[in-house]
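Archive entry: two folds, one per protein. Generate the first.
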Amino acid sequence: MAVVSWIAIVVSVLSIAVSGGVAWVNQRDKARFEARMAYDLEARKRLLTAVGPLRFQLLVACRDVVGRVQKLGSGRWNTDVRSYFGRDTLYRVLRPVAIAELIERQVNYVDFSVDPAMPSLLRFQAAALDCFTDSSPVLDATGAELAGVNWSNESEHPFSGTVRAAAGALIVVEADSPERVARREEFQQILSDALKSRGDLARFAGFIDGLTPDARPLFWLRLIFYGYLCQRFVSDHGKPAGLSASARPWPEMLQNVGRDDIQDLAGVLEERMRRLTTDALAN
């Protein structure tokens, strides 16, 4: 009988210990869950405040790129970067990359778990750089490099670092204010200073300065890819904001290029642009 009593006591003690242990684990897990929820809520608030406006700006900037590339392909325009139209073209081309740079500066790794759209915003920047620097836009219909491609210097395409630095020149840093992209009226002075210093912005401006499809056909191809990327980005993300970016068939953009090997790309152009953009935005 005494043995049975001792067994009962031991069982009771073990039950109490196990119950206490389970309660402690539950409290710990609850505390971790609540801490995680609190962090996620703060992260969402921070992203909404910091990145929310930039998302909309990026969509508008991409729509502006599509419109400008379409206009450049429809006739001859004065793209001297010291003229209004040329300067505005340069600003439009660089603005999406500058906004994407600001978005990159605002996020950290954990943000990817609280905002599923965040990876697509960062992939846009990588895809944009590919348009300007990758080999895909400057391959002929057989997949070989087009004549005139030179990877050793920036004679017909900018280096990746040049594009990022040129876009970074648009970022304005002010005391007690968030970093932002320069407004159009501010860009005139930024460009003027850059042309005097002959830095990265001036180097990139050289590709826009005097640009026509025929005068700079390899860079023109890259600009078509970039326009397609921007149109795709607006189509994928602009509907909630009521934004769209319509464009006539992109192969028409090749018509004013006086090179048969480039005009021959008309049959494969959209599939090649779709493949580069899909790969860049999906990985």
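Generate the second and append.
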Amino acid sequence: MTNIRIDHNLKFKTATLGCFLRLPLDKKTLALANILACMQSNATKEFPGINLQAKTFSNLYNTSLQVFPEVFGNQIVVFYTINFVEPREILDPDYNYKVIMDAFFKVVKEPLFDGQLLELAKRQLEQERKQYYELPANVSLSGFFNTWYRNMPSYQDSVFGDEKTLKNASLEEIKSFFNTLKNAPAFCLGQAQDPDSLTDLVQTQLDWPGYFDDFVVSTLSLPAEENPIEREIQFKSEQGQLLIGYGYDQSLPIYLKQFGGLFLGEYLAGDESSKLFTEVRKKLGAAYAIDATNYLNNSLFLISTGISKDKIAAASKAIKMGVKAVQDGKVDKSIFSKAKSALKRNYQISTDRQDLILIQMLANALRGRDYTFAQRIADVDRFKIDKLIEFSQKLYFNESYCLK
């Protein structure tokens, strides 16, 4: 059976469709995926010029096309997505699902393998990479993950991939990589006002073997290797960057690690009433910003902050004490209640964002389930303080990374 699901669009005036191709993560593969995506975003065989391709989709009532790879745990997913005004909203007999899908799949299935286009993509990625690393927060995050995966180098550099490949990949390598994509497990997902008609049109395009393979990944998350380390890097910037990472067992129940991480992040650093905002920013006057994020696919709970360089030690102590307090069962009920309300509100807002609905469909396809925003809200509702404490007690300090 072909991997395709297009739901009935009852809310939006635009339709959305994504073709998602899955590959195991390693740095070279990610770099090749970035290059190919950049090339296809610029031009393809049917539209052999940047202006021509851009104009083609602009003329389709400003249809939005995106091509990019993204890392999900131990997998790379190559995104080909399109968002377009529903034909029923436009009184134009020449604008229909078939015209839009024909253009879309010309991009997906027929790249232009041209030397000049390859060199342009390399220059663009080099510029993007340079701009990305001009921000100290990105430098520190990259350094943190490269240290976290120092014994698992395939999982380092999970934004752009291998730097040498980005610079030196040949046209033959890109062609070969594209051919591997045809056999990669793939899924087509979307929303449309007439899902049956769109499904019939898309179905005829899905002739690559990967659309008939199992798309589900039994375990997406990467294990955290318990091996504590503290690194301090000298860096020329006005403020320091401090990242403190806690690992946890990837085999924990999904409910506990997903919602435990979400609640702990919101409780510690969700808003101005959160614990670390109060302790680090208000009392110490040390932090410009502070965030706490659960990286579910990395078995990592990460607290990061931009901070006055003379208060790094005090802030580090306050952060660790904040986590320790929860582990000891000291939870402020009012802040916990605010965290619950904020998480429910986030999911409620997500139902009004078509891009997040598509991401949820992708996450479900990867995990082999049908988990709705309504179910997420219900799970937030039933999450109790004792579960927050239980999750926090599963955490172990594993890395401190500081740009100073």
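Annotation attached to the second fold: The chain has two domains: 4-212, 229-403. The chain is about 50% helix and 20% strand.
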